Amino acid sequence: MSNVELDVLRGRLDEINGQLLELISERAKIVQEIGGVKEKQGVPKFDPEREKQMLDKLVASNKGPFTNGTIRSLFKQIFSASLDLQTDDHKKTLLVARKSHKEDTVIVLPGDVTVGGASSLMVAGPCSVESELQTRTVAAALQKAGVRVMRGGAFKPRTSPYDFQGLGMDGLRILREAANEYGLLTISEIVDPRHIEESLDYVDIIQIGARNMHNFELLKAVGEVDKPVLLKRGLAATLDEFIHAAEYIMSRGNTQIMLIERGIRTYEKATRNTLDISAVPILKQECHLPVLVDVTHSTGRKDILIPCAKAALAAGADGIMVEVHPDPATALSDAAQQLNIDEFNTFFNEVKASGLYR
Ligand code: PRE
Asked: To test ligand 1's pocket by mutation, which of 25, 31, 43 has the most ligand atoms within 8 angstroms of CB?
């Protein structure tokens, strides 16, 4: 074949390529419109029945030279790319996604404490509120250390129903009183939509715990109040599931959401859970919400809290959560992993000295 002949044929192919590109782009735009219609109707994007009908029709009118098998596989590729387009479009519309809100969300708490802004946040406090004395002792130590937000569990979803379940509303009252006395803000887990309204007077941030990340009714309910929410990643939740759980809250109108990585279940036994550091930059990339890391629950080990907190901050975390108890050995929950007050002071000083804590 002469070069001229080859060039002519290739020229025709270039032309056809151009036409094919125009056609598949036009097809793609219709696919996006169909995706929008399906979204509104709440029907699944993937429609194998429709794909089968189209493939059968194409094969019936196939005159070669491509085999029917080749036609099927070429068009299946087009359908699959079309489906990706519809799903991508859907992702773009998530309210929590960075695609729909480029700037970082900064949550402003009472007393001008910010989360997700220029400064890092240290959240510390006992696993459970156990008594006035225990809570006030921690609050005093936190105030002295310069911590602004105290955590303390009042409703404790424990693995065993026979373990300490928390002091409930009394626990929230104790937490609030200690926090008020020492000028701190409070964060506590709420596990039942019926408790939300009453808890609003006691907590500055509502925590949704890992076990409740999939509790969609609870997510919807906290989505309807005007109170910041700290959403923990589920024990075995993918980042996509985690992001969609946040979307449940935001879709109901509450935009003040913080995400917290708290370790996931893996085969590794050296730590209580596996701290997924990669979750931090991925969540920051995918969402505009502040991201914190719970070093206590993810590791379950006091000896590695400092490097893990530094790693979290280096990866872009906006804050750290850690458990502190005046006498961890006697704690009613998480006895093995809470820091005592001296240990907390060493921990916080070292994290600050790293230069990673803003
Ligand atoms: C389309 C895309 C995905 C579905 O699985 C089936 C078909 C296609 O590309 O033709 C379009 C579409 O969503 C539809 O016809 O319902």
From this structure: 31
Q: Give DSSP secondary structure letters for 59-91.
A: HHT--SSS-HHHHHHHHHHHHHHHHHHHHHHHH
pLDDT at residue number 90 = 55
Q: Which atom of ligand 1 is nearest to the CA of 54?
A: 10
Best substitution site from 30, 32, 33, 34 to test ligand 1's pocket, by max atoms within 8 Å of Cβ? 34
Among 24, 49, 50, 53, name the best residue to mutate to test ligand 1's pocket (greatest count of ligand atoms within 8 A of Cβ).
50
CB neighbours of residue 242 within 10 Å: 25
ipTM of model: 0.93
For the chain, residues with pLDDT lower than 50 are none
CA distances from 147 to 121, 138, 142, 312, 334 (A): 8, 11, 5, 18, 21
What pLDDT does residue 1 have? 63
Q: Is 37 in the pocket of ligand 1 (CB under 6 A)?
A: no
The pLDDT value given to residue 17: 98
Q: Does the Cβ of 52 fall within 6 Å of ligand 1?
A: no
For 128, the domain range is 107-353
Q: In this structure, is residue 76 part of a structural domain?
A: yes
* pLDDT (0 to 100) of residue 210: 97
Q: Does residue 37 belong to any structural domain of this protein?
A: yes
Q: Which of 61, 92, 123 is the last residue of a domain?
A: 92
Span from the CA of 61 to the centroid of ligand 1 (angstroms): 20
26 & 160 share domain: no
Residue 79 shares a structural domain with residue 134? no
Domain-embedded: residue 358: no
Residue 187 is part of a domain; what is its CATH number? 3.20.20.70
- Please state, in angstroms and rounded to a whole number, the distance separating the CA atoms of residues 21 and 1: 28
